[in-house]
User: Which sequence fits this backbone?
């Protein structure tokens, strides 16, 4: 399974850049494999992202903004959903991955099952 993060390398928005860096930095720090898909330089990436963000996750007006996160082709969420999962020690579940043994998330899951 490959985590795909759709980003815009040439975004004029510092908020978008910060959110993208936050997601990518977390994945790198936790050694979670991922692919960056740049929608600013690749029209196919932009079109695919826009078509595959579910209707109920789209903004009322305009297009979904990066970062958008997928596991293969399954939509996992945007930055706000990622942030909430991170705050709740549930990022691996959010990404559709198994939490590694010894991680905070694995400990939380073990306590919930006990």
Assistant:
């Amino acid at each position: 399974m490959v985590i795909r993060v759709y980003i815009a390398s040439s975004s004029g928005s510092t908020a978008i850049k910060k959110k993208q860096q936050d997601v990518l930095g977390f994945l790198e720090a936790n050694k979670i494999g991922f692919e960056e898909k740049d929608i600013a330089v690749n029209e196919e990436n932009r079109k695919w992202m826009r078509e595959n963000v579910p209707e109920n996750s789209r903004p009322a007006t305009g297009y979904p903004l990066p970062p958008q996160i997928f596991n293969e082709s399954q939509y996992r969420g945007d930055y706000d959903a990622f942030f909430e999962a991170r705050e709740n020690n549930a990022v691996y579940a959010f990404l559709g991955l198994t939490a590694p043994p010894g991680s905070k998330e694995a400990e939380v899951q073990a306590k919930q099952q006990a």
The chain has five helices and four strands.
